[in-house]
Here is the input.
Amino acid sequence: MALAESPMEAEEEARFAPLYKVTAKVNGTPRTAEVEARTLLVHFLRENLGLTGTHIGCDTTNCGACAVLLDGKAVKSCTILAVQADGRDVMTVEGLEKDGKLHAIQEGFHEEHGLQCGFCTPGMMMTSVAFLSKHSNPTEGDIRHAIAGNLCRCTGYLNIIKSVQYAARKMRESKGGGSA
Ligand code: FES
Ligand code: FES
Here is the structure.
């Protein structure tokens, strides 16, 4: 396809770009929207589904603010096309709380003061949830490694690590103990 020569032409092209139907199970509920082939998963979640808890901090796969779970794995949703999520399970920060009860990771960030402005927090939590599902008794080094792709610009990382440790402890206790 020839490239648009002017902004007006580009706008015109966008208006007539073909749409693709995407249906994903988002936080346990099937959600459908029609999107362009180029639509990123983060835009599908925020703009088509109104789930604005997933943040956009860079748009260049750098900061991790947009992390969500795709089939249980943490992914940067600014790096995945919405069409790639078709037929798959997506979990966003909005899906953490269940029946009015905070997830252990949310409780951890609250109890250990793991956030300041909160911009990085949804991504930090989703990355941590995926990590903790495979590592129930992580060392501090393991946690630092796990969140290396998530940037926090204001709290420093100490309380974030304590928050993840808190969640790991809580999750072990609720399972009646056990280690990685
Ligand atoms: Fe996706 Fe920064 S917005 S990595
Ligand atoms: Fe502000 Fe992390 S709490 S960017």
About this structure: The chain has a mean pLDDT of 93.
